[in-house]
Amino acid sequence: MMSGKAEAAVDKVFVKEMLEAFGREALEAAIDTKWAGKHICYFKELDSTNARAKQEADNGAAEGTLVVTDMQTAGRGRRGRSWNSPAGVNLYFTLILKPVYQPDKAAMVTLVMALAVAEGISLTCGMEAEIKWPNDVVVNGKKVCGILTEMNVEHGQIQCVAVGVGVNVGLQEFPPEIADKAASLEAECGKPVSRAALAANILKAFEKYYESFLQELSLSCIRDKYNRRLVNRDREVRVLDPQGEFQGIARGINEFGELLVERDDGSVTIVFAGEVSVRGIYGYTV
Questions:
Q1: What is the per-residue pLDDT for 6?
Q2: What is the pLDDT of residue 10?
Q3: CA-CA-CA-CA torsion sign (213, 215, 217, 221)
């Protein structure tokens, strides 16, 4: 018979192995949704989950198909930035959507996913997760997730929307240029985090909020929930607008996902294009 200490050690190893288990079987066992992620395309390595998802969609993949990889060799963020994507520690996936709404509605899907990721992190890790408008999720003031939404359009109609998500999950070293701005979930919550459980919680939340979005084709249904998690809200922001930078106080989003920024004279500017930086949240620029 094993001693109590030996049994505890075995249990600890077993729990660690369960948390680290990742792949098609682990994801299928964890995901409990009606359609989001019910079909999984899993790869040990990909150049980009978004690129592969668009290929899968072109080849007939159904809505809700999930493209997942353990490692990306050419991960991308907004504005063509690279996304550090090492193996064995993070969560990289793209969800395929095949909507019938017009292309100008697709930008709102990014905000739906941001809310879902924040909620999924809170459920999985038991800690607060916030959103930096429109597509970053932050924990304790540091970025833990980025979202990249792309679409294929032909003759004015959407063929597919690829919603890509990258979450820093396990302990890791970040490149020097982002080491003070990025964090991992394990480092922030102080315990290992199951990537499969996190994916399952994100997808369940997304399915719920996306179905609500489809009813009105606006964010009216989730606006209050989003604004409660919005780290920008009631804080000074700098708007990097092509027509000229300006500063103001962010007052939350409207029903279309646009950021409302109150200027010094009391007027409110609606921000859609451009990039917003927030004082105190990993500096002014990201």
A1: 43
A2: 36
A3: negative
Q: Which H helix or E strand runs over 144?
A: strand 142-154
Tokens matching residue 166: 């990258």
Rounded to the nearest 5°, which phi and psi values hold at 191?
-155, 155
* Sequence-separated (6 or more) residues with CB below 8 Å from residue 173: 179
CA dihedral 91, 70, 147, 191 (to 10 degrees): 20
Tokens 């480092």 belong to residue = 187
What confidence score (pLDDT) does residue 83 get?
53
Q: How many CB atoms lie within 10 A of CB 33?
A: 16
Assigned token pair, 92: 């990289």
Nearest residue to 162 (alpha-carbon basis) of 61, 73, 83, 91: 61
Q: What is the pLDDT of residue 14?
A: 37
Low-confidence ranges of the chain (pLDDT < 50): 2, 6-18, 79, 284-286
pLDDT at residue 179, as a whole number: 87
**Cα separation of 46 and 252, whole Å?**
36
pLDDT of residue 107: 94
Rounded distance, CA 68 to CA 45, Å?
Answer: 9
DSSP lists the bridge partners of residue 157 as 154
Closest CA to 147 of 170, 172, 120: 120
Global pTM reads 0.89
* Helix residue ranges per DSSP H, the chain: 4-20, 24-30, 49-58, 107-125, 185-189, 195-216, 223-229
